Amino acid sequence: MATHTTTARRTGAWTPWLYLAPALLLLGGLLVYPVYQLGLISFLEYTQAQVSGGEPTTFQGLGNYATLFADEQFWQVLLATVLFAAACVVSTLAVGCALAVLLTRVRALPRLALMLAALGAWATPAVTGSTVWMFLFDPDFGPVNRVFGLGDFSWTYGRYSAFALVLLEVVWCSFPFVMVTVYAGIRAVPAEIVEAAALDGASQWRIWRSVLAPMLRPILLVVTVQSVIWDFKVFTQIYVMTNGGGIAGQNLVLNVYAYQKAFASSQYSLGSAIGVVMLLILLAVTLGYLRILRRRGEEL
User: Could you tell me if 189 and 215 are in contact, meaning their C-beta atoms sit under 8 angstroms apart?
Assistant: First the structure.
């Protein structure tokens, strides 16, 4: 009897993994193998000469990483990427959470209109959205300059104005995910708790900070980590809106920098090394965030 019970338990323990097996195999093919190839190429001498077969592929060890870390431009681009991604994440969370709270305060018809508009922005391809924003802020024909009387001011000429323009587009296409997710979380909070806080005289900001945010912390964790991953590896918006990284590379981020190294300069090994560095940074950020929450006793 005991043996039968033990066997049943073992079978039951493997049942979830059997259901997950098809998805795990698909993810393994789409993620694990490309990451393996990325890491492998980063340890090789792999340029156009090796791709065409003119020269043999040689093992470089950490040579590509040493070359990368000795490049001053790499550190400048890394700093710009971190600051730009942080600004995008904070702005996206602020806009998304604010609109999620707004959705709980408006009537059904305005709520539906806002949801449809937000989902339309979310569903717009990055290339299309970037092109639309370039038209809106065009120095000659864009309506934004005309409305605000900016004349022929070029948003993409200056480094900070170009980053600001890209940030606006990134937030525009990213906030709907935060808004919808947080709104669903707010709807799951018992209404009695919010009403009790309002009766005690708490302002909307105080209700959010002291009541809703602590209860929504697992959801906020998800949207924050997702936003960090998405915004740290922004490529399309920067590439399209700054024409490949801006004047003299003033608007480069790591993804565009890796693309230039790999495809514009045919230094595929250096481009792969940059990709590995980005992967490690994102893993460190995600694991560090999870570790902090576990220390605080939060349920993930």
Answer: yes
Which residues have a Cβ under 8 Å from the Cβ of 87 and sit 6 or more positions away? 167
Mean pLDDT, the chain cut into blocks of 10 residues (300 residues total): 56 76 84 88 86 82 92 94 95 94 89 90 90 91 89 90 94 93 89 81 81 85 88 92 89 93 89 93 84 64
Beta strands in 183-273 (DSSP E): none
What radius of gyration do the chain's Cα atoms show? Answer: 24
Whether the CB-CB separation of 241 and 159 falls below 8 Å is answered with: no
Helix (H) or strand (E) holding 295: helix 268-295
Q: Where are the beta strands (DSSP E) in the chain?
A: 44-45, 58-59
First to last CA, the chain: 37
177 touches 222 (CB < 8 A):
no
- pTM for this one? 0.85
| Cβ–Cβ < 8 Å for 263, 272 | no
- Which residues lie across from 144 on neighbouring strands? none
Q: Are strands 44-45 and 58-59 parallel, antiparallel or unpaired?
A: antiparallel
Query: Where do we find the tokens 């864009």?
Result: 142
Residue 74 exposed, middle or buried by CB count within 10 Å (0-12, 13-18, 19+): buried
